[in-house]
Design goal:
InterPro entries (chains A, B): NAD(P)-bd_dom_sf, ODC_Mu_crystall, ODC_N
Number of strands of chain A: 16
Protein name (chains A, B): Cyclodeaminase
Largest interface: A-B, 65 and 65 residues
CATH superfamily of the largest domain in chain A: NAD(P)-binding Rossmann-like Domain
Strand content of chain A: 15-25%
Pfam families (chains A, B): OCD_Mu_crystall
Oligomer: homodimer
Distance between the termini of chain A: 23 Å
Order of helices and strands of chain A: EHHEEEEEEHEHEHEHEEHEHHEHEHE
């Protein structure tokens, strides 16, 4: 049994092309039916405004699979803590015995979530883009922009958030990080109207993007909604997409943007919707022409967790890192 | 973050009246609607004959709650490993931050499962009993007999298992452990006909107990079935019970004995079924008269896991045990 700390994981597991590639392989496995992925388990801690999700996926042929526990406790800001936390564990797919605990406090989730955004853009965004728009100013707003840089060259970022102050901090940090201009704009509309590719990274309960702002050729990745009551895009945005992609339809129709489009009757279950793994496995094409409007709805899947946890494990073990705990005792004792 | 090993946990957490009492409180909380307990998450690893279950329950007012991962990999015997394994973790119910990992390899599950059996017997078994019957010769067959001793005095155990050799080992070990006679018998029928209280602890897919063997006053606890395809009691056994109890009806009608009784139409959903927490909270009575046949169907619940994990945490921390891992780094880095 190995224990890896957040500190070690941050030092040695980066958001790079290799991380992107393992997550992409995860989606391909999913599309090719080599993954067992049960529905997300969720515990609500109503009296503390908190929730804990458990995700998992077993990929056939892999020696281990991840179980991830991630929490969101939305009163934490009152005591100066981030809302998100959690850990991943790796279980042997041969014996069921736990092999490693990755005390990442959500770091690996940030990486695998940003990777999915970049993968969506790789297949759906126009090849040549100038301006990227980001809505939301939290850590995913940062990771998503950084990940996008791995698959697209762009010269400018437009940032909008409810707090202008946080948007300014974002602009300062990210222009240094990316080495390009990052401009604060004063509305989501200004972001959408002026960007080639837009990423929404908010916990919004009411849509932040209206369909009337869309323009030909735009790509939007909405990664914020992962619960029934969350929504970042007007349902009409999905209806206007010439290419509509989900990480998994099963999850998006319960927890993502798709859910609202179905609920409102703007899309029927017969509407052509593509899963991200169909793009990565080349079963389906991504963007079909320059003027197409494309939308990707991401809810976050267990197969991404297994992919990134296996990648992290390999990175750590080959460096001889991690705390090893040996503890074997007879089965019936006491 | 604390890490506790199986070795430490076995040394300091015992199957005793205190453990029984915390599990009993867990069932009471469940009956009094102070528990959020989502359905069990399950991953099947078909190509390895394995399965992993995740269980959890948040009890209002408790500072932490458990998430438990337990595996059953049924080819493990080929490489000399036990089929079961797993761990528990404790999550803060205030902040969602993981607080402890209990690397118990299923030990705490054994304790809380046996405790539930003893609780069932406490309310359902006749007060004065002479002979206890056990079917199955694995570790739960041992823990259940030991737990029963905490609530009932008995002079003899009858043991039956498919392997006579394993039954003999059981008899030898348990007669030393309990200080009473433990006799190997040659059939499940001999166990049932000659025992006041019977515990079934098998992974049987076909019933091991027939209704025609029942006699007035018998109590049966069936703790083996925890999956759709498992069954230890003929459905008619449940129909003959004057008092039929489940750990939770929601789980038993999916995964327990109850499921088969409903499926076969031997019981309707209007049949009076009591939950164990209704007994512990005194909302309902247990055994109502000496001649009554009583049956308890146990599938194992997340609230037992939270109860035993909190108990174990307290036992360990007050002794200053456990490995403490400190690891705090800024939220956005890299």
């Amino acid at each position: 049994m190995f224990i890896f700390t957040e500190h070690e994981l941050r030092q040695h597991v980066s958001l790079n092309l290799e991380a992107l590639s393992v997550v992409e392989d995860g989606f391909t496995n999913l599309a090719e039916h080599r993954v067992t992925m049960p529905p997300i388990m969720r515990v609500d801690v109503h009296d503390q405004n908190g929730e804990v999700d458990v995700k998992t996926a077993y990929v056939e042929g892999k020696g281990m699979f991840a179980i991830k526990v991630s929490s969101g406790f939305f009163n934490n800001y009152k005591i100066g803590l981030p809302s998100g936390s959690g850990l991943m564990m790796l279980i042997s797919a041969k014996t069921g015995v736990p092999q490693a605990i990755l005390l990442d406090n959500g770091y690996l989730t940030d990486i695998r979530t940003a990777a999915a955004g970049a993968i969506a853009a790789k297949y759906l965004s126009r090849k040549k883009i100038q301006t990227v728009g980001v809505i939301g100013t939290g850590s995913q707003a940062r990771y998503q922009a950084k990940a996008l840089r791995l698959v697209r060259d762009f010269q400018e970022v437009l940032i909008f958030g409810r707090s202008e102050e946080r948007a300014k901090v974002y602009a300062e940090e990210m222009s240094a990080e990316l080495g390009i201009e990052v401009k604060v704009v004063d509305s989501a509309e200004a972001v959408v109207r002026n960007s080639d590719t837009v990423i929404t990274t908010t916990p919004a309960k009411d849509p932040v993007i209206k369909a009337e702002w869309l323009h030909p050729g735009i790509h939007i990745t909405a990664m914020g909604s992962d619960a029934e009551h969350k929504q970042e895009l007007e349902a009409e945005v999905l209806a206007q997409a010439g290419r509509l992609v989900c990480d998994t339809i099963a999850q998006c129709e319960r927890l993502g943007e798709l859910h609202h489009a179905f609920d409102q009757g703007l899309l029927s279950r017969k509407h052509p919707i593509v899963e991200l793994g169909e793009l990565t496995s080349k079963k389906a094409e991504g963007r079909q022409h320059e003027e197409q409007i494309t939308v990707c709805d991401l809810t976050g899947t267990g197969v991404q967790d297994t992919a990134i946890a296996l990648f992290a494990f390999q990175e750590m073990v080959q460096r001889g890192l991690g705390l090893k705990i040996e503890d074997k005792v007879p089965a019936f004792k006491n």
